[in-house]
Amino acid sequence: MAAARTYADFVPSHDLVEDAAKQTLVVNLPGFKKEHLRVQIDNYGRLRVSGERQLEGGQWSRFRKEFQVPEGCDAGGIRARFEKDGVLHVIMPRLTPLQDDPTAAADHEAEAARHAAAAEEKKRHEEMEEEDARRRRAGHEDDYASDEGEGAHRQAASAGGQAYGFARDRSRSGMVRALLLAVAVALVGAAGLYARYRWMDPSAETAPADGALSDY
Fold it and tell me: Which of 59, 62, 135, 206 is the most buried (most CB within 10 A)?
């Protein structure tokens, strides 16, 4: 008589992946092999996945999961595929593939439009900043040229003022020299007239020795 088996129940993790054509039940069964598994569908539209395998020491691991077949599924087209990495895929095709959701398409288009508008706004902002920078550079160059022109004007005015002052000083010095020359000429003329007067005046003869003045 064979010894009774001792089982350790195992609860596998699972996930449901959907697309327009099918729904796929993904069950993670590490350590199991294809011959350890059974996939069945009962008359009530329930999908049953079960399996058992022997562990060390004569103990067995087993599991049993039931899933409701989704509405719109082609029950006759359900297929199971077991991968070597211990993952079971139960593929359940749709009777009618889903059409693209117009709402989702509209949302996608709106999102794309928002991204395009944001990119355009960023580009316009960068162009404005570049234009402002160009204007600031042009303004600095104009200010520099204006400062240079003003400096040259000030230098010219200063030079003109110095030249005018120099000419004025020269004119003043010439006037002084002319005045001194006129004074000298006047003095010389006065001395000449005096000498001439002395030569022509008979009364300018020497006085009597006794110093007495004669009456006329």
Answer: 62
Q: What is the mean pLDDT of the chain?
A: 75
Residue 141 has pLDDT above 50, yes or no: yes
What total number of domains does the chain contain? 2
Q: Are residues 32 and 86 in the same domain?
A: yes
d(CA 73, CA 95): 6
Could you tell me the pTM of the whole model?
0.46
Q: Say if residues 29 and 81 touch (Cβ distance below 8 Å).
A: no
Do 88 and 18 fall within a single domain?
Answer: yes
Whether 33 maps to a domain, the answer reads yes
Domain limits at 121?
A: 100-163
Look at residues 68, 82, 52, 60 and name the one whose alpha carbon lies nearest to residue 16: 68
Q: Is the confidence at residue 60, as pLDDT, over 70?
A: yes
Ramachandran assignment for 86, one of left (phi > 0), alpha (psi -120 to 50 degrees), beta (any other): left
Q: For residue 216, tell me if it sits in a domain.
A: no
DSSP count for the chain of H helices, then E strands? 1, 8
- Within this chain, do residues 81 and 142 fall inside the same structural domain, yes or no? no
Report the C-alpha dihedral over residues 129, 130, 132, 137, rounded to 10 degrees.
Answer: 140
pLDDT, tens digit (0-9, with 9 covering 90-100), for 18-42: 999 999 999 999 999 999 999 999 8
Residue 123 in domain: yes
Same-domain pairing of 89 and 10: yes
Does residue 43 lie within any of the structural domains? yes
CA angle 167–170–171, rounded 5-degree value = 85
